[in-house]
User: What shape does this take?
Amino acid sequence: MTPLPRATDLFVIGGGPAGLAAALAARRRGLDVTLADCAVPPIDKACGEGIMPDGLAAARSLGLDLDAAAGHPFRGIRFRDRDSAVEAAFPNGHGLGLRRTALHQLMVNQAIDAGVRLAWGVRVSGITPEGVIADGRLVRARWIAGADGGQSPVRRWAGLDACHHESRRFGFRRHYPVAPWGQYMEIHWGDRCQLYITPIAAAEVCVVLISRDPRLRLEDALPGFPEVQGRLAAAGPSNLERGGVTASRRLKAVYRGNVALLGDASGSVDAITGEGLCLLFQQSVALAAALAAGDLSLYQAEHRRIGRRPEWMAGLMLQLDRRSGLRSRAIRALAGRPNLFAGMLAMHVGELSTADFLANGLSLGWRMLTL
Ligand SMILES: Cc1cc2nc3c(=O)[nH]c(=O)nc-3n(C[C@H](O)[C@H](O)[C@H](O)COP(=O)(O)OP(=O)(O)OC[C@H]3O[C@@H](n4cnc5c(N)ncnc54)[C@H](O)[C@@H]3O)c2cc1C
Assistant: This one.
């Protein structure tokens, strides 16, 4: 265990992907960085384990070559409901399915190489204007990054809990030792929930159930998805379900004084977008630039810009979740015009402008009206 220092430039609270990414980005700017997490690596979490092409690019800008890890590439996204299916490839590059523990270990190794001071099994119990209270004593810090997840105590301590909007759903993840049956990450839409399936190895898939009902479990939901159930039936799950809350939350501010939030602590988009990791990689780069400039208002502006597109897409997905009539018409319309779905996907991964997308949206609306 690395002993905590008396003082540091940046103290990162939380050593999940956001904390590690922030630490890496700040080290690249030459800051002395200390990170503490109450858990011990490799840290697991309920996650769909899919990283979109823009997420892989953002990770590369932190020096993280996720393609070198033992993951599984996928070409695009496939939507399926009871009556129709549509799929499209990413306009450039590929996505990657990567076990959460493998991602975490890779990031920890990179942080060690970069010279981040890592303190595992250390709970932070408060912050003061001078620094952070960790293991019961003060560590002086010029800057503090709160990367302590969706329930973020740092957010509360810093008085940053106020948000524009918030809604919650519940996710349950399980792995199955089954060879991926396609080259896409699949989202299966049901009446009360969605299943999304990410290929993560040559002989393994990650299955996530997302719904508004905290009591609904994968094995109760699977009979509603006979195609998926049939494919998974050959092999039982390789582990127990791991659950988590997925929130759609936009904070009014993501910094105060010398404290900045990132990752799920700084707000989040629904898990069905598969954008959580991409967002936090991008936020880390923006935070490090703002720290180097000594001005966290730059981070606030960039955080807002980064979040806009995923929030918009999440809003659209949640409309499809809530309105089954709209959903089946939309998926049927997209199935008839797969180039529209390809346009949506290009917009989702930042390869198409909002104006182009709006033109696409109008065509989709027209198609739905004329079906
Ligand atoms: C069901 C589900 C599926 C998802 N699927 C995807 C997907 O396919 N693709 C994608 O990109 N995103 C996905 N996401 C989102 C993604 O998982 C999150 O955005 C990401 O995990 C956020 O990472 P984080 O580091 O901000 O938070 P966390 O991973 O929650 O890390 C926070 C860390 O802070 C530590 N901590 C908390 N309090 C303290 C304290 N007081 N002192 C010290 N340490 C502390 C915790 O131990 C923890 O390690 C999904 C989310 C859910 C719920």
Observations:
- DSSP finds eleven helices and 19 strands in the chain.
